[in-house]
Each structure stands twice: as structure tokens, then as C-alpha cells.
Amino acid sequence: MKKSLLIVVVLLFALSLLAFSVAYSVRFNERAVVTTFGRADESAVVTEPGLKWKFPYPIQSVTKYDTRTQFARAEGEQQSTRDDAQIIVEAYALWRVTDPLQFYRRFSNAGPRAADHYRRAEAEVRSILRTAMSETSDYALSELFTAEGSKLPDLEADILRVLEANTTGENAYGLEVLAVGISNVRLTKDNSEDVIARMKADRQRLAQETLSRGDSQAQTITSRAENDARRIRDFATYLASEIRARGEREAGEIIAGMDEEPALAIYLAELELMKSMLGDKTTLVIDGTTPGVGLLDPNAFDNISGGGYPEGSLAGRLLTDPNGDQNGQPDATVVADADVPSASTGGGTR
Questions:
Q1: Which among 31, 123, 202, 231 could disulfide-bond with 100, CB atoms 3.0 to 4.6 Å apart, if both were Cys?
Q2: Phi first, then psi: what are they for 260, rounded to 5°?
Q3: Tens of pLDDT along 55-90?
């Protein structure tokens, strides 16, 4: 019983070894190269995924390559720009295997495993990338370091063209460079102060241009405002002259009427004087002979006839004595009180 079990185990182990040596699988993201006695031709490439069969080693062997994107990075390399500035550029490249047979022929001498081939291919791509970074010399420092319109994308495109030229054609590596990117650009210590000084000068130039533009706009606004003010003043002067002329015409008509009846003009002036003198909270103690206040005499309106004027008014006196002579003096002191119940007994105005 034990002997039979041992035989079964040995047979299963032998079958496993046989299956491992004659069968292999290819994933969807892989391409395989099947070599016969170390040689491979166009028919040796397997592109369809799934379980495959082969002759056992050493007759045939299989090398499988991952066709997904690979990454190669070039560390900081000092480069010279067109204006002789020294900068440190770091770049990377994305690549993948597109021709497994050519890739195998190119890098199979690096070792028996696919990982060895990838390691050698990455080193080659990195070496070409470093060489291609010399394209930096076609660009000035100001073209790379600018807030708008930087030519870094153009530099990346130039590096990509150099990589494609060195990995295709007669020097085909069986791979395709998908993209190139510049991950970092640094200034050397010697150039940092110069760049900072140029940046400061650029900022000062921009500030001066902004100030000049602001001064020009301010002058334009001031000139426009002065023109507007001058037009307004001219219009106001013209309008005032029109109003003054109309007032003079109307005043002329009134003056002409006053010339026909001077006593009426004097009487109206006396009334205006009374209105201006008798304000709120005002008490006046004045002599009845004071010019212009005759209307305050209690007896001023006693002897008015139709179309006449009070005797105590200047108009009445003018009609009575055209020469201005006054006969007799009023018998009493005139007291005018706007709101205060009693008047003081002294002379003057309070």
C-alpha cells in the first residue's frame, strides 16, 4: 500500500515537471518569444493570451515581455542655455515594448530573464535621454523661465524627437518612446543671483509701465473733467446772463411804474422793513420819529382817505410835504412787541 502511494506521488511529480516544461501561459498584457535552441524568427512571437505548448527545455524556452508603459528617469544634468546660462534639468521618458522579437534580439545578451532585458533597455533609454537633454542649448533662459508662453513644451518635443530617432530605424530597440517630460529645472548657485536681479528688473519695468499708464489715464480723465467743467461754467454764465437780463427787463418795468407813483414805492419799502424788523421773540422800543417806522404809530391809519397813505409813513409825509419838511413831532413813543407781553421803558433795540 505504501509502495503504491509512493509511486502515485512520484508519477504526479513527474507529470507536474513535464507540464511545467511543455506548457506556459501568456497574459493579456504580455508578448512571448519562443526560442528554439536559442534562436528565434518571426513565427516565434506569441501575441494571443492563453495557455500555450512548447518543447521542453533545452529544446525551446519562452521569454515573456510586459507591454505596459515603463518609466525611465534621468537625474539632474547640468545644461547650458543659448545665452550661456547654466541650469540643472531633470527629465523622464515613458516607453513600452512594441516589437518583442527585436527587443529580444537587442537585449538578450543582458541575461536569461526578461527582467535583465528591461534593466538594460531602461539604461539605454536613460542614456539617450541624457544626450537628448542637450537640446536645452537651443533655448534662452528667459524662454524657459517665464510666467506665460514658456517654451518647456517645445524643449520636451525636441528631446522626444531625439529619442525616437535613436530607438528606431537601424538602431531599433523594439520599443516605442511614448512621451518625454521635464520634471524639474533648477538654477545653479552662480546663476541664481543673476536671475533674481533680472526678475527684479522686469518687475520694476512692469511697475514703471503701470505707473506711466496710470499717469496717462489720470491726465486724460483730468482733461476731460476740466473740459466738462468749463462747458458747465460757460452754460451757467450764459444762463445767468439770460436770467439777469430778464430780471433787468422786469425790474425796468417795475421801476418805470414806481417813477409814476414814487409814494407807492416808498410805502411798499416801509412794509418790507416792518416785516424784516418784527421777527419772533423781538421787542422794539424806538422813537416815533425814527424814519421808516411811522406805520407803528397807533394813530397812523386814522385819517386815511381812499387811495391815500398813513400820515406817519414816509409816503404820507412825502405827499404832505414834498420837500421833506416835517411839522410837529409825534406825541408818543412807538412800541412794537412781537411776542413779549410787556415792553421795557428804555430806548434802543433788544
A1: 31
A2: -70, -30
A3: 888 888 999 999 999 999 998 888 888 988 888 899
